[in-house]
Amino acid sequence: MIPSFDVVPEIDLPAGDDCGYPTREEISEDGFGYFRGTWRIGHIRVSEARRAVDFERELVDALDAVALNGREYEVLANAVEEFEPDDEFPMVLRGTPVEGILGRVDENSPLGGLEIGVAGLTYALSSVGFLTAASCRAHEGANSWSDCPVVLFGAHKWRAVKLADLAARAECGIGQGREMLTVYAQSIRGLMSLADLVLASRASFRPGPNHHGRPQRTQRGMAEQGTLGL
Predict the structure, then answer these.
(1) Is residue 183 within 8 Å of 9, Cβ to Cβ?
(2) Fewer beta carbons within 10 angstroms: which end of the chain, N or C?
(3) SS3 of 208, please?
(4) Nearest Cα to Cα of residue 135 among 111, 156, 158
């Protein structure tokens, strides 16, 4: 069972051109947006994004078949995310379909340290010109900083408009928060569907003759820090 959260996805793009695309001065090795535990991802090859999206779907399908409720899913997903190939295999995952999937992982997991269910979309967006800042799959209990699965990002306006069309098709929402954009859904399934659409439509995100330069940016202040990101 994949958890579903009580949100109604809507498309809410800024009226102006500012869609949170950071200036060079706002980007560091920790990324941008003043999150904790984040790092800069930058541009990702489409082949790498495709590998992450496919691997993530295989894992989610396996977890969906095993977890009987949201609490069990949380325990299993945590074990997947904390798994290191050199460590002893987690007892909670032994004998499940997940064991065979993780058994194929070398020292570099396709998820790259990101949470399951939001990693694929993060890499898909990063492969077509978006800058991702943070993500959260949403968690059972009080330790989740997001109330639904979400990826936060900066974009040029024309790319954000194209993404909004795909998001509506995947039953995802586009919102505004922390001086950047958010893409969110009731469950990770929505974000995973959007990742597939982004990769399938990657040609539409390539800049044309009318797409150039950086959007006009205003001075950004420090946002409230989160606890998990990209």
Answers:
(1) no
(2) N
(3) coil
(4) 111
Distances (CA, A) of 100 to 39, 41, 105, 106: 29, 28, 9, 13
Closest CA to 44 of 130, 116, 105: 130
Residue-wise pLDDT for 151-198, tens only, equals 999 999 999 999 999 999 999 999 998 889 999 999 999 999 999 999
- Residue 31 φ/ψ, nearest 5 degrees: 90, -140
How far, in Å, CA of 226 to CA of 224, rounded? 7
| 192 within 8 A of 120, measured Cβ to Cβ | yes
- Which of 133, 131, 121 minimizes the C-alpha distance to 53? 121
Residue 207 makes CB contacts below 8 A (sequence gap 6+) with 129
| Helical pair 188-200 and 46-66, crossing angle rounded to 10 deg | 150
- The three-state (H, E, C) secondary structure of 34-91, written as one string: CCCCCCCCCCCCHHHHHHHHHHHHHHHHHHHHHCCCHHHHHHHHHHHHHCCCCCCCCH
Tens of pLDDT, residues 187-228? 999 999 999 999 999 999 998 766 655 544 443 333 333 333
Contact residues for 35 (Cβ-Cβ < 8 A; gap 6+): 133, 134, 225, 226, 228, 229
What CA–CA distances, in Å, run from 77 to 90, 115, 124, 152, 155? Answer: 11, 8, 21, 21, 30
Strand partners, 152: 134, 182
Q: Is residue 151 within 8 Å of residue 138, measured between CB atoms?
A: no
